[in-house]
Design a protein that fits this description.
This protein has 117 residues and is an alpha+beta fold. Helix content is 38%, strand content 23%. The protein has a two-stranded parallel sheet. Strands 3-4 form a two-stranded antiparallel sheet. The protein has a two-stranded antiparallel sheet with strand order 5-6.
Length: 117
């Protein structure tokens, strides 16, 4: 949850620069909305209980909880064409991105050339 709070703290700056933050979680739409409302998060969420987007980005943590998969905490920076420019994924899930890390990653994604098909 700390990662979401950090992202929320820089969200106005990212929006001002033309960017967007979207969080992906494995919860149901109702669970996701309740958590976002409780935390006062201003950015969008994708509820992905079937792990389709999670798997597309390689973020499934199999058996994170015995018998249950979870989403690995990660930050992906996408280019304007939707391809991944860079990723932040800490070695320890207890470590949280800092606002500076997120701002730097976003700036690098903005500067990254769009790939051709």
């Amino acid at each position: 949850m700390k990662q979401l709070a950090v992202a929320n703290s820089i969200y106005p700056d990212i929006k001002e620069q033309g960017g967007e933050i979207v969080a992906i979680t494995a919860g149901s739409p109702e669970e996701v909305k309740a958590a976002a409302d409780k935390l006062g998060l201003k950015f969008s969420f994708l509820a992905d209980p079937d792990f389709q987007a999670v798997d597309a980005y390689g973020l499934r943590h199999k058996d994170a909880i015995p018998g249950k998969d979870a989403v690995r905490p990660a930050t992906l920076f996408l280019r304007a064409d939707g391809t991944v420019a860079s990723t932040i994924q800490t070695e320890n899930y207890r470590l949280t991105d800092t606002p500076e890390m997120l701002q730097k990653g976003f700036a690098e994604a903005l500067a990254a050339p769009v790939t051709s098909p």
